[in-house]
Amino acid sequence: MLKYNSKCAIAxxxxxxxxxxxxxxxxxxxxxxxxxxxxxxxxxxxxxxxxADVVTLKMWIRASSKENxxxxxxxxxxxxxxxxxxxxxxYGDNYSEVLKLALSSGEVPDVFExxxxxxxxxxxxxxxxxxxxxxxxxxxxxxxxxxxxxxxQYAADGHVYIIPKEMRYQRLYxxxxxxxxxxxxxxxxxxxxxxxxxxxxxxxxxxxxxxYGFGLPIKSDSTWxxxxxNIAILSGTTGPWAFDYSTGQFDFAKQKPILEYFRxxxxxxxxxxxxxxxxxxxxxxxxxxxxIGMYIDGNWMVNGYNNELEAAKDLNYDxxxxxxxxxxxxxxxxxxxxxxxxxxxxxxxxxxxxxxIKYVLDNxxxxxxxxxxxxxxxxxxxxxxxxxxxxxQEAVQNMKGVTGLLQEQNQLTSFPVIPSQMLTLEGDSRExxxxxxxxxxxxxxCELQKLSATYNKALDVAKTDGTLTQSDLTPDGFxxxxx
Length: 483
Description:
By secondary structure, the protein is an alpha+beta fold. The chain folds into two domains: 6-168 and 336-399, 3-Layer(aba) Sandwich (D-Maltodextrin-Binding Protein, domain 2); 170-334 and 418-483, Periplasmic binding protein-like II (D-Maltodextrin-Binding Protein, domain 2), CATH 3.40.190.10. The chain has 19 helices and 14 strands. Strand 10 and strand 11 form a beta hairpin.
């Protein structure tokens, strides 16, 4: 992932901010003014007079719609008490650009979601003093309820600046209907990559062009993290983007066996045709309509298939742990963290702001069900105590797709620093090289060697300018199996 350059996006973002200000002015007088923390109170939803003892906080959320888990939770928070009122704004795909510009200009809300930002940007904003440390607002007992990675991904200089709100990890999704139609046991997913290849061939042969064994959305950049990186991490071979934490260098050659595996799949015709132009959304649509037997995707899609995608209403599927090669010792699963909430360092109401963050962390996976009892969803929080309580409920246990989702959920571990996210490359990226290696006949050894050289050159620059330190690259006591 390349480091962000803000110059090319300023004009578009300014237009978005201006439009957002116009729309906000039309809908809510209490949002006027540039002070992000208004301690004078504001009008309530039913038009009550302003009260001086109400703390009003501004909050920004990245979401695709105005009604989502977070907004439902914040609405519930506002209704649950009368000391703090949260006024939130929801942004879509342009959120990260809006947030970067706001931070650089100082026009920042009290609480803002950190979503869509690369690790380099987050670290630079922490160093610039835009985010307030959070550890003064929680104790060890509260922290002990969480996956330990929650307090390492966004830590710097001994302080925690963001507590991520969700666990993001990958699972093998498999279509039980297609398993049955192909003569496979619908309750027995593949346990090794060799078995997954075998099953994919059986399904494709049974499909006779109607359906195929595996979905690999080659068009999507995220495909390689989702498929190749996950297998490499589970195998104890490399970290994300083929970075080797034992040597502090990128070594894409170590991912060669996995790339050869998917090349063999492609050449055998078990990957759905047209995958060169297939993105992840189209792969999901084909899986939902019984065109793809297996593919790898994020944990959040269990909720998507069960509650959001109309095309998946009749889908009979389940999830399983991602397989590794036969005989390979299995390492800890890969936990990816890229979202959470920060408090603006200049907010006048940091303690109240953390009260809001804590409410979201504790309730974001239950609030939708409290609003609509049919919206049953598994908890994917980093608060493991909440997960255990919610996911043990019979309604969740009976959901389609939860078998593999809940397996080893408490054993997921992140990488505190992912070096690839903090580099400026001069040359081809992994995302442009890997598709060619899968669908073509390029010299894989040569291309992977060049790729390693490109990333390691950028790594040297990042070490020289202080973006990355040696402790980032070779953590003390690091072990792929037990990290």
